[in-house]
Amino acid sequence: QDFVKKRGYRWQKLSEFPGDTPLPLIGNGLDLGFDADEALLKLIKIWEKHGKQNFRMSVGSEDWLMLCEPEDIKILLNDNFELSKPTERNIAMNPFFGNSVSSSEGERWKLMRKLMSPSFQFKTLDRTADDFSKHIQSLFDILDSYEGKSPVNIYTYLKPYMLDMLSVNLFGVHMNYLKNREQPFIKTGRILVKLVTYNFFSFWRNNKYLVRFTPLYTKMQNVIKAIKQNSTNIIAQRRKFLNNMIEAKNNNKNIDMDYDTFIEDSLDGGCLLDRLILSVSPNGDPMKDEIINEEVTLALFSGHITTSMTLCNAMYMMSLYPEMQQKVLDEQKAIFGKDFNRQATTQDLNDMKYLEVFIKETMRFIPIIAIIGRQLKNDLKLSDGRVAPAGTSVNIFYNAANRNPRIYTEPDKFMPERFFEPMHPFAFIPFSAGPRNCLAFRYSWIALKATLSNIVRRYEILPGPEPKFAFRVITESTNGIHLYYKKRNTVGA
Ligand code: HEM
């Protein structure tokens, strides 16, 4: 009875927002169709049909409010109390990433966020630009081998490249994914994104027994096994390294860095995995392996897929707009001058203003993450006085927000320069905002700029066969992104 009363109240408040009439039990579930790869396109159509504004829909027993207005997005994301993730999102993600920092709430979330944050501060990230410049050579070796022959499917190389970088930067281990691309873990990425999307958009997913009888169930179990095993290997390698240091210290052996200084460094910022391994609870217990495994799996997976897809999309857009690619190159020439092949410093990266707006426009045009949201604990009053009722899953629908006609002139046109103009601070938030924003947005900017700066200085990027984008929870092309790389004979300005 309580449920009926609450749902009735929710419906009363939600009916003030535009949306189609829901059917009993399944709500507007049929509007999403039965092909999860099509669901997002259908959501965009619903947004267009209702006047390209905030809209509501019900999917099974869940009520969604989809936001695209910056003032309302600001209210939602700045709320220090409404920090829970939507039920359907957690059901889709938890089998793979457990109760890790991006899903948890309350004490576990606070503890993890506090523990991890120092690994993503400016001071800690100082060395990161150098790491990228050093590792880029292994990517160059591969792209060079394709020179003038055939287009390269860059997904194949950019994903393991980013996995390598994250392993070094966050976990202090060299995993060499780029050199060993046949590992089962590498192949899990595509399937995982597909599975999460299917889980997210299937309104029968709450029923664990039904899910077990679907053909995807065995695939899902195999993926979970592969990603957990990979994290177990990473943690074991780093533990071995730490144990060797302790042993060296106990035996008074001469090592590069004194153990105590090393630990101090780690705890002051430094390697994310060391912070997890070395942390102790107030009663002196170390963190459980299972918890460390969940956090490593989440950081590695979400970190590599988001950054590598953004890099691939930016290169794809450069191939489509050669005159903009030239502008990116001209900026590189102005920054590096005669010393055109030197490593970029953090200051150089800051100076790459055109590259920055180019990346932003790429992220606006092809949003990597389609939807993020919060499951409301209380009613939330929006900017025009209407109320999003408690229990609703209030989502930021990036595909709509990034083409909001009240914010962007000619939203369907690719125009990096638009980001030189002042804009509402919550209009463009690819890394989210507020207390639960992306922990690694600074790291990601270094990764994106350092990698693209190196690639553009070395190659001219030309288009290959057209990609076929599927709008999954992570936007990706089902046939990869194929591009030609032609070595430049630039010697700088
Ligand atoms: C282009 C790259 C990236 C984009 C666009 C991106 C975007 C996002 C977004 C939209 C959120 C959701 C926040 C919310 O619900 O409000 C998020 C959360 C998160 N991201 Fe990223 N991200 C990127 C790269 C990374 C990388 C490299 C890592 C590395 C570990 C990372 C780690 C996280 C974590 C741990 C969270 C959860 C934070 C929390 O719930 O407290 N992200 N990211």
Automatic annotation (TrEMBL):
Needed co-factor(s):
heme
Stored PROSITE patterns: CYTOCHROME_P450
One of its Pfam families is p450
Q: Write the record's keywords in alphabetical order, separated by commas.
A: Heme, Iron, Metal-binding, Monooxygenase, Oxidoreductase, Signal
Annotated residues that bind heme are located at 438
Name a GO molecular-function annotation. Answer: monooxygenase activity
- Domain of life from the UniProt record: Eukaryota
Task: Read off the InterPro entries from this record.
Answer: Cyt_P450, Cyt_P450_CS, Cyt_P450_E_grp-I, Cyt_P450_sf, Cytochrome_P450_Monoox
Q: Which family does it belong to?
A: Belongs to the cytochrome P450 family.
Protein name in the entry: Cytochrome P450 CYP405A5
Organism (species): Heliconius melpomene (Postman butterfly)
Tell me the lineage of the source organism: Eukaryota, Metazoa, Ecdysozoa, Arthropoda, Hexapoda
